[in-house]
Design a protein that fits this description.
Layout lengths: L24 H16 L3 H8 L3 E10 L5 E12 L5 E8 L4 H17 L5 E8 L7 H14 L9 E5 L5 H15 L20 H19 L8 E5 L3 H12 L3 E7 L2 E4 L6 H10 L11 E3 L1 H5 L5 E4 L18 E3 L8 H9 L3 E3 L1 H4 L2 H15 L5 H26 L3 H20 L4
Helix pairs in contact: 1-3, 1-14, 3-14, 4-5, 6-7, 6-12, 6-13, 12-13, 13-14
The structure holds nicotinamide-adenine-dinucleotide.
Nicotinamide-adenine-dinucleotide binds next to helix 7 and strand 7.
Length: 435
């Protein structure tokens, strides 16, 4: 039998939930991009420039499997834009990943980096493989050959990968080592999301959830709501969901529901989050059987009567099928694309404030930026400094987006796209088109 790889067995291959809309998150992103371009009256040429990636690379990756047989995989790297600085974006390993998906995700990264004002462009990479079918050494050989084939693309001043679906800090360590061996010097800044011992940053693991909470608190304050008086429901209890729940709990909020693949857990008196986290740790990473809460479905969780809803599991959870039944006042998108574009208007008409993914979950890329800065300085910050700077950048980003939403009388989602596209387009105009 094959040894299982170190890649976490995540939920990504699971069937979509019952509310799944056919609309893809990437089409949603393009719809939003078009709308923002209209609001900005973006010049046609600039629109075309920003709609097309600057570079798309497809490589074949031959790997000698443990059996001695050669298998060939396909790998991608798309740089959507590098106007603001070196491009940045994760690498996903998945059997169905393809160049179109990677292209759209790369554009998404451009807007995300621009919203939080980190000096990066957007990129994304992928390898068409089911990593759960590979042994650890096959996974290492695949990663090293993918990196070797991308030596011309990657670089601390050019393009900086990070983990995404089914890739982790071990894979980042192999990328960093392969790149360093080929450039004959240690180049920690070529990837982020590395282990702390290898130039990773303190606070990176918690950064996305922490950022979600910073912007949620900012939104509550705009609505005149006190964090210790609000009820919160969190879908997904992985990295982003559990940290968001924990930090909201520390703010005194009542976390009335949490969930994972095993279903939802509801207690109107509030769930003790540190206890739930301990339970998950001791229960094979699952909430299955969590006591002291009523079992509900993930769909019911989304429709609970609460002040704040944090979808932090996966895409397409709130669509036109259930948007009409959402009761939360604020939705903070911890996950990427949890609300479909078709649901945006319905939520807006109900007066629900949606803090969009490109703002709400940008804490991860912000601390990736800090990691890159620390690697380049060779000087590492304390967790307290990382968190303080993260909070400041997320808070500033929220205020900027909120300001744009007031100026144009548009939703926070439209405002985040307008802010990001305007920033990239203005920088592009200053730089000019090289001929
Ligand atoms: P994770 O694998 O650590 O956690 C995912 C959680 O969601 C698990 O608890 C899983 O059981 C649960 N889940 C999966 N499918 C579900 C479903 N259908 N219903 C309810 N729960 C379900 O992943 P993560 O890193 O926390 O990422 C969650 C989301 O946040 C993803 O959309 C990811 O792209 C996005 N995101 C993550 C980061 C990051 O830094 N980790 C940064 C930006 C965006």
């Amino acid at each position: 039998m094959r040894k299982k790889s170190s890649v976490d067995s995540k939920s990504y291959y699971k069937e979509p939930g019952p509310q799944f809309d056919k609309e893809s998150p990437f089409e949603s992103m393009m719809q939003r991009f078009r709308l923002a371009a209209e609001i900005l009256k973006l010049d046609d040429g600039l629109f075309q420039y920003l709609a097309s990636p600057v570079k798309q690379v497809i490589v074949s990756i031959p790997v000698v499997m443990d059996s001695g047989k050669i298998e060939v995989f396909e790998g991608y790297r798309v740089i959507h834009d590098n106007v603001l600085g070196p491009s940045k974006g994760g690498i996903r390993y998945a059997p169905d990943v393809n160049i179109d998906e990677v292209k759209a995700l790369a554009a998404w990264m451009t807007w995300k980096c621009a919203v939080v004002n980190v000096p990066f462009g957007g990129a994304k990479g992928g390898v068409r493989v089911n990593p759960h079918e590979l042994s650890q050494s096959e996974l290492e050989r695949l990663t090293r050959r993918y990196t070797a084939n991308m030596l011309e693309v990657f670089g601390p001043d050019k393009d900086i990968p990070a983990p995404d679906m089914n890739t982790n800090e071990q894979i980042m360590a192999w990328i960093m080592d392969t790149y360093s061996m080929n450039s004959q010097r240690t180049e920690t800044a070529v990837v982020t999301g590395k282990p702390v011992i290898l130039g990773g940053s303190q606070g990176r693991k918690e950064a996305t959830g922490r950022g979600v909470v910073t912007v949620t608190l900012a939104a509550l304050s705009k609505m005149g709501l006190m964090p210790n008086k609000v009820s919160v429901a969190v879908q997904g209890f992985g990295n982003v969901g559990s940290v968001s729940a924990q930090l909201m709990y520390e703010q005194g909020a009542s976390i009335i529901a949490i969930s994972d693949l095993s279903g939802g857990y509801y207690n109107k008196e509030g769930i003790n989050i540190p206890e739930a986290m301990k339970y998950v740790k001791e229960n094979k990473n699952s909430l299955e059987g969590y006591p002291g809460a009523e079992k509900i479905t993930n769909e019911e969780l989304l429709e609970l009567d609460c002040d704040v809803l944090i979808p932090a599991a996966k895409e397409d959870q709130i669509s036109r099928h259930n948007a009409g039944r959402i009761k939360a006042k604020i939705i903070a998108e911890g996950a990427n694309g949890p609300v479909t574009a078709n649901a945006d208007t319905m939520l807006d008409e109900k007066g629900i404030m949606v803090i969009p993914d490109i703002l709400a979950n940008a804490g991860g890329v912000t601390v990736s930026y800090f990691e890159w800065v620390q690697d380049r300085q060779g000087y590492f910050w304390t967790e307290e400094r990382v968190n303080r700077r993260l909070n400041r950048m997320m808070r500033d980003a929220f205020d900027n987006v909120y300001g744009v939403s007031e100026k144009y009388k548009i939703t926070l989602r439209q405002a985040a796209y307008v802010y990001a596209i305007d920033k990239v387009a203005t920088t592009l105009k200053m730089r000019g088109i090289y001929a």
